[in-house]
Design a protein that fits this description.
The chain has 425 residues and is mostly helical. Helix content is 62%, strand content 7%. The longest helix has 30 residues. The chain binds NADPH dihydro-nicotinamide-adenine-dinucleotide phosphate and the ligand CC(C)=CCC[C@@H](C)[C@H]1CC[C@H]2C3=CC=C4C[C@@H](O)CC[C@]4(C)[C@H]3CC[C@]12C. This is 7-dehydrocholesterol reductase.
């Protein structure tokens, strides 16, 4: 069998597992995420504010302006002349093209935002206070956008790919197309890399500036925002590497990714900074800067693990890992254009566990939350959800690899027996 995503769903053979996967889980997420995100932004302000009513979905003119400007800014950077890069060719022969100006986009966004804050000093506090409305607008936009993706992917697909039928709610959740484009740009790059990631960064800065205006300097808050900013700067530096991941080569543009980056990222990923405006961290300055040192180490180590694999792949295995020639397993997989050979790295971090990059990813996420430890669990919301998301991702990634490499994947798992933490899991 050629290595491809062999979709197919047989309602007559529905197992309890299928029912959960194709009906219960997507319905649950679609129903829970919207009220959940709105609750978080109301609750996170920690005041006795009246709970938002249904009119919050209409947003406000300020909220819609913020959303529209951020989207237009992200879109503009995907249209300006720039170098291009490409993702892996799909099994049905499509090679997605991306704009390779992530670093410029990141710095230009930061500078433009700081400039706006200097021009309108009340801007950060206004955005902070209007966040429930901004989240209302984002929810309305995202839910509708995912309907458009579903309709277009189902009735007017842009690619030649043929995929099996699934329950409608699952198609909405999963999405229909792998690499859809809109007005000349790749939708996943626009929504995930450009909107989601820059919203996370600019919201962090907004909350930090709002905190400074409403209270005073707080080392714990600054450290938390700095660590996330360094992490996000690293993301834009490595953006081309992201085009080789599960989200791009396997997941489709639908609720999971698009609603995820339009709503889940701004509400949950940036939540600790949001929470710190009304609940300034209570750790001492010295503790905060020790956390900073550790956090930077975790972010860099996370990058180092990804980088080892990138160098290994780019050199076809002819590289050194930790000062010794890389060790690997030779593997084969079938494609529609014949059998292909590849290699799986088994030395360095990739010999310790099959997803050691996630260990540092999690440590980094816990490090920028830990400055809020005196407030209990809320500052750890993102890191806790990330733990669940990454464990689920390990299983999804391994299902993909097992389908792709077959018996070779079993051999690799024997050589590198642990998934995440050596000796434990
Ligand atoms: N903050 C967040 O929300 C999240 C952050 N991340 C971060 O994003 C980055 C990328 O993570 P992610 O895309 O999940 O996964 P990985 O970078 O771990 O990539 C997994 C893929 O790499 C290939 N691979 C796996 N093992 C080996 C090996 N030993 N040798 C060579 N190739 C191998 C396989 O693809 P193939 O063989 O087909 O090429 C596999 O599907 C990480 O830094 C991670 O921490 C990830 C998820 C969520
Ligand atoms: C339940 C629900 C709606 C989930 C949404 C999940 C998505 C928003 C995330 C799933 C995978 C996430 C990411 C993967 C890898 C990344 C690289 C990292 O360096 C930066 C973050 C990210 C782009 C991250 C972003 C959110 C997801 C797409």
């Amino acid at each position: 069998m050629a290595w491809s995503i062999q979709d197919g769903f047989h309602p007559k053979e529905l197992t309890p597992g299928d029912a959960i996967r194709y009906y219960v889980f997507p319905c649950f997420l679609v129903l829970v995420c919207t009220p959940g995100s709105l609750f978080l932004l109301w609750f996170g302000q920690g005041k006795d504010r009246p709970a938002p009513d249904a009119s919050v979905f209409l947003g406000s003119s300020f909220a819609w302006t913020v959303v529209a400007v951020t989207l237009a800014w992200a879109y503009a950077f995907l249209r300006i002349p720039s170098a291009k890069c490409h993702g892996p060719t799909t099994y049905f022969g499509q090679t997605p093209e991306y704009q390779a100006n992530g670093v410029l986009y990141f710095w230009a966004s930061l500078i433009a935002f700081v400039f706006c804050c200097a021009l309108w000093p009340d801007l950060p506090v206004s955005i902070y206070e209007e966040m429930p409305y901004i989240m209302g607008s984002l929810n309305s936009f995202a839910l509708l956008f995912c309907v458009l993706l579903l309709v277009r992917g189902k009735y007017w697909p842009q690619s030649k790919e043929r995929i099996g039928k699934f329950p409608l709610i699952y198609e909405y959740y999963r999405g229909m197309e792998l690499h859809p484009r809109i007005f000349g740009v790749d939708i996943k790059q626009l929504i995930i890399c450009r909107f989601g990631m820059i919203a996370w960064e600019l919201l962090n800065l907004t909350y930090l500036f709002a905190g400074l205006r409403l209270h005073s300097y707080n080392a714990g808050f600054l450290v938390s925002v700095l660590l996330q900013s360094i992490y996000l700067a690293k993301f834009f530096w490595w953006e081309a590497g992201y085009f080789d991941t599960l989200d791009i080569i396997y997941d489709r543009a639908g609720f999971y990714l698009c609603y995820g980056c339009l709503v889940f990222v701004p509400s949950i990923y940036a939540f600790s900074s949001y929470y710190f405006v009304a609940h300034p961290p209570l750790v001492s300055d010295v503790t905060a800067w020790v956390v900073f040192g550790l956090g930077i180490a975790f972010v860099l180590l996370n990058y180092k693990v990804d980088y080892e694999k990138q160098v290994f792949k780019n050199t076809g295995g002819k590289c050194e890992i930790w000062g010794k020639p890389a060790r690997y397993l030779e593997v084969e997989y079938s494609t529609t254009s014949g059998v292909k050979r590849s290699k799986l790295l088994t030395s360095g971090f990739w010999g310790m566990s099959r997803h050691f990059n996630y260990v540092f990813e999690l440590l980094a996420a816990y490090s920028w939350a830990v400055v809020g430890i005196h407030y209990g669990a809320w500052p750890f919301l993102y890191s806790t959800i990330l733990t669940i998301l990454l464990v689920q991702r390990i299983f999804r990634d391994e299902e993909k690899c097992s389908k792709k490499y077959g018996k070779y994947w079993d051999q690799y798992c024997k050589r590198v027996p642990y998934r995440l933490i050596p000796g434990v899991f």
